[in-house]
TrEMBL record, chains A, B, C, D, E:
Main location: membrane
Pfam families for the chain: Bestrophin_2
Key words, A-Z: Cell membrane, Ion transport, Membrane, Transmembrane, Transmembrane helix, Transport
GO molecular function terms noted in the UniProt entry: chloride channel activity
Chain ranges passing through the membrane: 20-40, 52-70
GO CC, any one term: plasma membrane
Subcellular location: Cell membrane
Classification via InterPro entries: YneE/VCCN1/2-like
Family: Belongs to the anion channel-forming bestrophin (TC 1.A.46) family.
Top-rank taxon, per record: Bacteria
Protein name: Putative membrane protein
Taxonomic source organism: Siphonobacter aquaeclarae
Membrane topology according to the record: Multi-pass membrane protein
Length: 307, 307, 307, 307, 307
């Protein structure tokens, strides 16, 4: 599943694709030009020397390290929790598909098992569409029987309504004597887990890191970078713009990555490859009940986390 | 669900709304005026030069970074745990609503299912009111049958009493042969989870971060800020007030945010949007059992975490 | 439940009650006097100048920040885990009380349900007494029937013996046909959770943070503080004692708080308010089965975490 | 199970085997030669003095410590989570093997129990082969009956298909009256856990730490190391190359270890000893059902984590 | 259970017993002598002045703090996880003992319940012996009936075989009509937890922190300490050996503690008191079924964590 091959340590220094560098270039250019101006003016502003020594930068440095570290950990935790939720989705849908024919009297190849598996796949796609605010109609139409598709059209929380359908499927199966209460309860336990997954994804999507944190950190990072040339000009002279841009790059890039990871369900380069994961769930579920499987999603050069 | 649109990196530097800046302005003004006085007096106090070199500030810096980092992590963990508990509330009430008609013989549209769902919604609202110490009468009256509402009026722990009602509902349903023991046990398991959620919220609300921590940190931060001008005046001269206020802003703001997040169930700008979440639970539960749904809560410009 | 009202930021700087300052005063006085002596002697010891520059302090500072941070996190985790365990105790006893009349055929107001609830309350009090090594006789006598109270008197692990009684209660109820196996298993699951809570509390109470850590940290902090004046005297002169005491206060206080929180079940000011929590459990359980409830524990000005 | 004997503290300083030093030697040599050139040229580049003072290095240092610490924690967490998943695999397969003869009417030594145990062992090996992308044919052929082996050959997710077989085994056993629904549900619960383990391993294997992080960190570390001689040459003179290489070694090695641990299922020296663990699972499962056990995997001098 | 009484803050500075100081004395002596030599030679090596300024030490310091902090957290986590596992063992054996007479029809004092409890105690002791690679014969012989003891003698994984016996006990009980399927499943769930505990302990015991980490950290710490005198000699002169030894002590001791805690199941002073815990489990289980209890293990002055 892993596409990324280990880069040679030397070549990795000059990677362009897949770094945040392209996106940050304009800001770094502004920083470079500004630094050049400050060197030219010898660190004066309207003929008044700005006497910034390294001392304030050490103090700022402590604050910034603190803020950046916190922000980055919080963002990465969100990213990784999102990934765990989608991993749990894979596990639970596999378990439910297996239970649909081992805990009931249905045959592996029966229409009922197939319908239940389609519900699981439709559930997966509709969750992805809800998180990305895209239209699920295409996927739901190809996976669900027409009447059900129609009745879902106006639904606000489609994945929840599909879970209701699965619950009703278990009720129906028990009525038909395919099931006993124990087996139904076992499947119901996994439906509860699906409910936790839906809610967990909604929680991450709807509750960003408090906005004040973002503003405060953003200000600290950029002011630090734009004041840096005043602090370096006396000792570094014409090297100032280069050092400023390099130091600035590391801090600004760190903040930019944290910003991207914070919302793991989006479609930016480092977000979760929900397309590939949902297709993979479709493949493994269909294989489990012995049906032909579609092709996996092609590795997207813009997404590095999973092909 | 996400209202906040990505701000341009440059415009974000000058955001006013949603930062803690307005609230901190008076303190920063005091700091500014004080710094100006110290510059004017050349860092002397009663004609006696205060020879503060940067060395003590580095030492303080280590202590403060340590304290601020700890306080901030502890506060954010409380905020995020509170959010997780309300997320779990969403998941569990959805699961219970589903179980009320898939594990029993009740129809989706029966009066019993509807009553149970109303109990769940009333439970949600009464938990919010308990955490915010507001009066739940309005919400309980519109959701519950009159006799039940009356009997709850004097209750100390209303959410717990509503859980008791749900437990009695399952007992009643089993007596009426709508249920077997297995199904009742499955719903009972989810009632246990509700109990964990209530207790978890009460725990966060009733046990703040130990007060001595807050006092110690508060003192360290403010003394650091008010001593800073003495340390900077010799090298920065008339720039001292500006640098002091900027450095002070980052530290004081960081502490202020931690202070706000620490009690996530309040009504300050960065607290959890319990109004919107409880309304959302009402909507999704009613949709699950096929009833008309009310409007979601309008995005409150004072709350940034969820509309 | 929250008593503490938000202090004004300025008044909080001068709080006395509830900080660890009173307890640390003697040590800080020693430090102050010592510093004065060193300033008077110009940093010499037996006429030999102690040439401590700030460099060693920076090195020490890194070590100390590392140690203090670790110790503090470990202690706070223990405090918070202890709180979580007592929160879980609240949740589980509520769940068990509810189950005693919803999963059985017993009426809410029957003598059996009342007896079971008294067992739960007695369990709570006896756990508190075991953790604090106090005598549980008073509470057990008022809550339990005489024969049971007598038979428990010599018990080593009274909470465990009370759990046994609860288990036997479920066995009895099943024998009497008030219960089926499913219901008994559901209650048994919650008894398992009670067992986890007892064991978790015993674990925290019996396994302190390894003693070598405490010794090493203690030495580092105090040696740092007592050497500090030698490092500051040359640049700060008569300001040395004040700066030393202030810096020393922050470090010593941080260690003292960690030391207090480490054993959360004690009776020091920042320990968990087990009295108030166990009374609260008594109140909510009695309310659940419709009995009159006692008064809550009055807010103890020496305890800040819960009234 | 632990092979590594405690090294004497002095001898440990000169360990060669098992450190990442051999692998890093070429890079450190490049760094050494470069440093020598810079010392020879007195820190000038094309006759232009590069005036790098320690100040920028302190600033870089903060950034790098932040990045390295984050990367290292994230990698170690992945390593340890991978280890936990394989530990859970050991626990669950043991539990399932035990259940196959205690919850059913099958004898310990019956053919059915033996077949189920072989399924568990085959599951373990096929998971290892899937994670390492190696060919499972040899192991599956020796463990499974021919028809089953043939039917699995073309499977995409072989461990999942083997879980399906285990599910069908429980269905079969219940049909044959060896089992009741309760027992089947209990085993089904452990199959759910196996599903979680498979998914957890796939998640770690398919989702590396976001690539941008790696690039950013890699650049920061190497640029830091290659600029270091310019900063040290003035004060250290001919010692510069030695100090540079030693400092460089610690940072570069730290990054290299993080890089190795990040993918714990590979075959590099510090990766998880999946061969030894899967053999150990085979041994303990066979012993549980009273069959002769194979030899454990010999300690591989290239793997230090488990023999 | 807590033996350690709070030490006075002043006396604690001079504690000898229970610190790692005795063990580190030889290394610190080497360091002291070396420092003296360097002071005598004025920081020259073969008449060539080693111009180490504090700058490289600051850079090293960052690296070392990073490494030591990581190593220490990882080690303490292992220690605490080991403690949690043995705490869970206490909880689960208590729960199983209770279930053996509340979920079955057996009397509290019956031979079957007694036999099962002996199995639980034997399980506990055999796990301890396996983790410490000691001979379990003495304990198993006194606890188990002869035939069972003989059949276990050649077993590789004795705790697992004892779990098998417990599973067979439940099967037997059900055959004899003492049990229904539900009760057996409930006990089986706790046997699963025992399986998780065994596997968790084996995981910690068999997978040390990757060896490369240890080597890298060890080298960094000791090289730092042995280079320190060169950096301090110019400013501290004859104070150098004392400061070096004190700074060295803190770092070396921190590494030594981490090294001890890393393998929590050993018999070093800070390792877990498995003897006392297993005896405590024996006592509480025997008390639960009303049998006379042995004496607890005497507090071992070499072990500080639990008597």
């Amino acid at each position: 599943m892993i596409q990324r091959k280990k880069e040679h340590w030397f070549k990795m220094l000059f990677v362009w694709q897949g770094s945040v560098l392209p996106q940050l270039l304009p800001r770094l250019l502004v920083l470079f030009v500004l630094s050049c101006g400050i060197v030219y003016a010898n660190g004066t502003l309207y003929r008044y020397k700005i006497p910034l020594s390294p001392a304030p930068f050490t103090i700022f440095g402590v604050a910034m390290a603190l803020f950046l570290g916190f922000r980055n950990n919080a963002s990465y935790d969100r990213f990784w929790e999102g990934r765990k939720l989608w991993g749990a989705l894979l596990n639970d849908t596999r378990s439910l598909a297996r239970q649909s024919f081992t805990l009931t009297n249905y045959e592996l190849t029966s229409a009922e098992v197939r319908h239940f598996t389609q519900l699981l796949i439709a559930f997966t796609y509709s969750l992805r569409h809800q998180l990305r605010k895209t239209d699920p109609s295409f996927d739901l139409q190809r996976l669900l029987p027409s009447p059900l598709f129609e009745s879902l059209k106006a639904g606000l929380y489609k994945p929840v309504l599909l879970m209701r359908e699965m619950g009703l499927w278990t009720k129906e199966a028990r009525k038909n004597g395919q099931f006993d209460a124990i087996g139904q309860a076992a499947m119901d336990g996994n439906l509860n887990k699906l409910s936790d997954i839906v809610g967990g994804c909604e929680r991450i999507a709807s509750t960003p890191i408090p906005y004040t944190y973002q503003v405060l950190l953003h200000r600290t990072v950029y002011l630090y970078c734009f004041l840096l040339p005043f602090g370096l000009v006396d000792s570094l002279d014409w090297l100032t713009p280069f050092v400023t841009v390099f130091v600035g790059y590391t801090f600004v890039a760190f903040e930019a990555i944290a910003d991207e990871l914070e919302e793991p369900f989006g479609t930016e380069p480092n977000d979760l490859p929900l397309n590939a994961i949902s297709r993979m769930i479709e493949i493994t579920l269909l294989e489990t009940i012995g049906l032909p499987t579609p092709e996996p999603v092609k590795a997207d050069p813009e997404h590095y986390t999973l092909d």
